[in-house]
Amino acid sequence: MVSVEHIDDWRGQDVVDPDGEKIGKLNEVFFLAGSDDAVFATVTSGLLGRKRHVVPLEGASLSRDYVRINYRKDDVTRAPDFGETLGDEDVQSLSTFYSLQLTNPDGSPQQLESASARDERLERAEQARLRAEQLEGDAASAAAEAEAARQRAEQAQREAELATRDEAIARERATEARRLADAGDDSPLPDPPAADPPPAAAA
């Protein structure tokens, strides 16, 4: 197998056989689903790259200017041709043609995933992760705002209670002043109870 850290970045590079004969250009890479093991690649050739061949990457090597595969051009050009994806029957046909063992323990063909599909899947996963982080941040901000609003409401409630108490005291003093005035008593009214300190402002 060829590591994804290498072969996946070589799409568009020339592909040659063991004798150095050019087969075409690396077009797509297929991995074992759920792993970083590159199994097959599609190579395009001919006018406008209309011919497409599937080649195994087992034994492939990389150089500065090309990818060298372990199969001769004549064998590659005789291999079955497929579309953009490789289904179970395609994998079976290719495995038979190239004498490869690509089956699961139960005998079913192994699932493949193209580099393009892999990139799209990873991009969707990354976007989902970023969206989840954004939602978490929004939820945290909303919680902080709710807590600040709760503290402001408690502050307003305390201020309202103090205002109600001060109003009651003022009414009592006014009532007492009228009583003394009606009785002809000009004695000064007792001092009101000391006022509580104002409540601390909410953060």
Can you describe this structure?
The structure is a single chain. With 203 residues, the protein is of the alpha+beta class. The protein has two domains: 2-110, Roll (SH3 type barrels); 115-182. The protein has four helices and eight strands. It has helices spanning 4-7, 73-77, 88-98, 115-183, and strands spanning 2-3, 14-16, 22-32, 37-45, 51-56, 61-62, 66-68, 112-114. Strands 1, 2, 3, 4, 5, 6, 7 and 8 form an eight-stranded mixed sheet that branches. The mean pLDDT is 82.
Give structural attributes:
2 domains; 203 residues; SH3 type barrels; 19% strand; 8-stranded mixed β-sheet; alpha+beta; 4 helices
Any idea what the CATH architecture of the largest domain is? Roll
Predict the CATH topology of the largest domain.
Answer: SH3 type barrels
Helix content bin: 40-55%
**Beta-strand residue fraction:** 15-25%
Mean pLDDT: 82
Q: Radius of gyration from the CA trace?
A: 40 Å
Gap from first CA to last CA: 61 Å
Task: Kindly provide the name of the CATH class of the largest domain.
Answer: Mainly Beta
Put simply, the count of helices is 4
According to CATH, the homologous superfamily of the largest domain is PRC-barrel domain
Protein structure class: alpha+beta
**What is the general shape?**
rod-shaped
Q: Main sheet, how many strands, which sense, barrel?
A: 8 strands, mixed
Stretches where pLDDT falls below 50 for ≥5 residues? none
> What is the N-to-C order of secondary-structure elements (H for helix, E for strand)?
EHEEEEEEHHEH
